[in-house]
Amino acid sequence: MKVAVVGTGYVGLVTGVVLASLGNEVVCVDNDLAKVEKLKAGIPTIYEPGIEELLQRTARENFLRFTNSISEATRSSEVVFIAVGTPPSDDGTPDLTAVRAVAREIGKAIKAYTVVVNKSTVPVGAGDLVGQIIAEQGVDPALFDVVSNPEFLREGSAIRDTLEPDRIVIGAKKPEAAAKLVELYAPLDRPTLITDLNSAELIKYASNSFLAMKISYINAISRLCEACDAKVSEVAQGMGADKRIGADFLQAGLGWGGSCFPKDVQGLIKTAEKLHYDFRLLKEVVNINDDQTLHFVHRLRTRLGGFAGKRIGLMGLSFKPNTDDIRDAKSLVIIEQIIKDGGHVSAYDPISMSHVEKIYPEVRYASNVFEVAENADAIILVTEWNEFKQLDLARLASVMRQKILFDGRRIYPPAAAERAGLELHSIGE
Ligand code: UDX
User: Fold this and answer.
1) Is 428 in contact with 409 (CB distance < 8 Å)?
2) pLDDT tens digits for 175-190?
3) Domains (ranges, CATH) in the chain?
4) Which atom of ligand 1 is nearest to the CA of 255?
């Protein structure tokens, strides 16, 4: 099938590359010429394990190409995906400026029947909005349909998630339009759910908000565990063994961040507001998440008797492992708190240091974790990168001024810390 994907961020590029790997003729579009040139040279515009090889292979085999022209891409495709950013505006409502602009360009270019697919996370009603914008360009309604096909990929495992999704959701007004996407995804052989347009849009927000709620729930339980001398890992294990609850997303930690959960939870709160429903449950999910990081920092502040003049080492900066994404990363909140109170921060992350450096040039960026620990009064594990899991903790402790380890992701067993002579403070115990 001939497919265009507009937007080469996480969702767009991964979708384009995966569809090309299935033998479709895919053209990826971006209005940023520098990005297009990079992609043409085989260099991915995002950090994602496995993408470089797949990008280069599909391009070499002529299944994948790149352009900055939406009109050229639309005219040469039967299906056009919109996968541009919908960042939160100041009040949390998703900003649809890019979606609108792309819809206009697509509308101007349509000459033959085209299925336009919203893959960007958009509030309920955005599918209708895209349809309206295309129609305003003078396109005959018989020449296009708008379909919602939300993406559920996770950064760090985006290719596998796209090739093996738990479900494929297709929201459409007409069965013929849905059928086109069913055909496109047939090689994946995954459970496929066909719904109306609005339900598909809501499924995305409802799913991500539910997962964020699950994490906030276990984080709230972690606070109880700290107060009553219980262990959150054991509570989570006991809860997760109930099939109705399930073990996933019950990992207590510093809280959820990244490009999706914060934006989508806010997006759903705002959608609810517009529909005259006060979604108090979700507002509290956000409050618990914000508190979780601040409470952890407060525990450290209390232990050290304030941050003034103290040096704190951070292990990990990205919002989760295997990504260089620092959007809503907990590291940023922690750095801010320490610096504000007169403390000094050293940090190491395998790939995201250059991004954080642009925001906090005053942090001392190290070339490995042992350098981070040098003369530190405490060290915080912020992101659970694999390379931190089997660290020589005794070596780490040997270069520290005070041998205090705050584990924000619960990766270090108490016995290991004790053997290394480290005083361990974990979330939820
Ligand atoms: C998420 C959704 O999983 C994905 O379906 C959606 O399309 C985009 O948003 P992503 O943001 O890449 O994906 O990361 P994910 O692995 O889901 O983690 C989100 C956040 O929750 C991270 O900050 C992570 O550290 C945190 N988390 C996750 C926990 O604190 N505990 C858990 O048990 C799981």
Assistant:
1) no
2) 999 999 999 999 999 9
3) 2-195 (3.40.50.720), 197-429 (3.40.50.720)
4) 30
